[in-house]
Amino acid sequence: MVAKRGSLLLIKRGDAASPEVFTSVGAIQSSTWSIAGNSINVTTGDDVDGNNEIWNTFITGPKDGTITANGISKGFLPVQTVYNDFATGTAVNYEIVVPNVGTWTASMIVGDMSFDGPFDGVVGFDMTLNMSGAPTFVAET
Q: Rounded to an integer, what distance in angstroms lies between the CA atom of residue 126 and that of residue 120?
């Protein structure tokens, strides 16, 4: 039987090679996303009248975010690589694949991590990924 396209969100971890190859960590069963492109206060260093003007400006596009997810993985090794990122505080490129929509890619730091199992070869996980750079999005064609 040939595998068919899934309907769950998929999380993949990059290997930092060139070109980068992403390996599946697991399927996300539920998640919360927060992606921000907020306005910020801006001042100028060359303020000639000395009144330290402050104004709000909007930085276009997403600049940072957090993804909290729980899911399942086929085996312990993919989850263990994410745990190693958590333990060392290493920023790694991750992809979140949204079926029939597209793929978000960003450098992320694992903020929280827990896992259970395995049960029949399946490992459960809970994690929080904090973006350490602006995410990119590629729409599915």
A: 18
For residues 108 and 105, what is the distance between their CA atoms, to the nearest angstrom?
Answer: 9
For residue 69, tell me if it sits in a domain: yes
Query: Kind and range of the H or E element at 82?
Result: helix 77-88
- Number of structural domains in the chain: 1
Q: Alpha-carbon distance 103 to 112, whole Å?
A: 22
CB crowding 67-81: b at 16 or more within 10 Å, else e: bbbbbbbeeeebbee
pLDDT in tens, 53-96: 554 454 455 667 888 888 888 878 888 898 899 999 999 999 99
Instruction: Decide: pTM greater than 0.85.
Output: no
**Do the Cβ atoms of 10 and 28 come closer than 8 Å?**
yes
Q: Please report where in the chains the tokens 């969100």 appear, as a residue.
A: 9
State the chain's mean pLDDT as an integer. 79
Rounded Cα distance, 110 and 82, in Å: 7
Domain range holding 96?
Answer: 20-36+62-139
